[in-house]
Amino acid sequence: MPVQIPDDGDFASFKEQCENHDGWAARYNKGGVTVWCRDEDSRGVQKLKMKIACKDVTAETLYDVLHDTSYRKKWDTNMIDTFDIGRLTVNADVGYYSWRCPSPLKNRDFVTMRSWLPLGDDYLIINYSVKHPQYPPKKDYVRAVSLLTGYLIQSNGPNCSTLYYLTQVDPKGSLPKWVVNRASQFVAPKAMKKIYKACQKYPEWKRKHNPNLKPWMYPEQNTLPCINVADLTVQRADSLENIDESGVNEEKSHHHSDDEDET
Q1: Quick check: 176 and 250 in contact, CB under 8 A?
Q2: Is the pTM above the cut of 0.85?
Q3: Topology at the third CATH level for domain 8-225
Q4: What's the pLDDT tens digit per position in 76-101?
């Protein structure tokens, strides 16, 4: 399937999915974080949606933090690696991301096309998985598939904002049910709180690390090589190897701590 760069209609549809809770079941609501789930019958892949109120963080800061891959290496302790591969347009690029799964599950990675759009008091970032000829699946990772993942940031005043995170990912591999449940009950709320804390520390960090470098806002600063959209195809889940991890026992699994080194 050819890759389509999202248009205004795609961003509007994503925003509507974030704001409209019809058909969603709330699974968690505590400490300013809400998590909803929705099972998509057609694909058998669960959708997760999260919302967090950020009372002392501007929408602009949230937007910067979610774009800044240099800073992500500071706060995203589940991440193994991330880097930008190349740019498609002034507001679309292709990137790589890998993250740790609880042992003995295999670690996962993605290649995604990301697109972003500032809309007045709203900021949107969305992605889905693509195939890039120079970044095929790796031997030691399971290549997961983002069907649709993204953020909606809404400004609620001069120093107050709301962050929505919506994701529909096929992790590949027949994962045990406890992994899926743990994602909505534990991993997702923790991830949202981690982003919030990272945003609180970002202005001070950014002042010391290329404070004027924001290529997501100033395209003329972007030094990534150009990619032709025709060289990309949509990454379909059914074309990837399926790993059966359904027998992994929760008691035997190892959940790394936030400050544990990569294993």
Answers
A1: yes
A2: yes
A3: Alpha-D-Glucose-1,6-Bisphosphate; Chain A, domain 4 (3.30.530)
A4: 988 999 999 999 999 999 999 999 88
